[in-house]
Amino acid sequence: MGTEKETVRLLCKSMITRLENRKTVSFPARLRQIVQDEIYGLISPFILTDEDLRERTLAKVGARAEFLQDTSFTESEQYKTAKSIVRASFGDDVLNGFYYQKTPREIAKIVREYLMRSSHIDDVYELDEELDRQIVEIMQKFNPNELH
């Protein structure tokens, strides 16, 4: 089972939950989903998944999704070659099935800046560097395989 966009949503949920549990940020409980959705909207374009890899590979070979069920197709040389080309375009920053298009540190900065300016966040109790470090650590420790 590979990563998908829903897995990125779960990463955002984990991020907010852990920061809140550590008393790093505070916000009204009723706004939790809004905060998670807004962070997802900001960082999801920079975190590609196995699902993105499959979809882009199929697009590259001009195939449709029903071909994914055909094992002989996904093991074909054409598919494997296209997949390696698409995979190479995703870059080298890979962690737990996520293909980061920006470094975890850059993504942490995006999240931090959101937390600092969002009207949904009551307070942030850490300095910028410490907040970035915590967010990066949460991304590094997030394991999609432990979700199932």
Q: Which helices and strands appear, and what pairs or packs with what?
A:
Layout: H1 5-21, E1 25-26, H2 32-43, E2 47-48, H3 50-61, H4 71-74, H5 77-89, E3 94-95, E4 98-100, H6 104-117, E5 123-124, H7 128-141
Antiparallel strand pairs: 1-5, 2-4, 3-4
Helix pairs in contact: 1-2, 1-7, 3-5, 6-7
Notes on the protein architecture:
- With 148 residues, the chain is mainly alpha-helical.
- The chain has one domain.
- 58% of the residues lie in helices and 7% in strands.
- It is built from seven helices and five strands; from the N terminus they run αβαβαααββαβα.
- The protein has helices at residues 5-21, 32-43, 50-61, 71-74, 77-89, 104-117, 128-141, and strands at 25-26, 47-48, 94-95, 98-100, 123-124.
- The strands form two sheets. It has a three-stranded antiparallel β-sheet. The chain has a two-stranded antiparallel ribbon with strand order 1-5.
- Strand 3 (94-95) and strand 4 (98-100) form a beta hairpin.
- The longest helix is centred in the N-terminal third of the chain and has 17 residues, at 5-21.
- The termini are close together.
Number of domains: 1
Average pLDDT level: 90
Contiguous helical run count = 7
Alpha-carbon distance between the termini? Answer: 9 Å
How would you characterize the largest beta sheet?
Answer: 3 strands, antiparallel
Radius of gyration: 18 Å
User: Going across the major beta sheet, what is the strand order?
Assistant: 2-4-3
- N-to-C SSE string, H for helix and E for strand: HEHEHHHEEHEH
Low-confidence stretches: none
> Count the strands?
5
Structural category? mainly alpha
Helix content: 55-70%
Beta percentage is: 5-15%
Please tell me what the overall shape is.
elongated
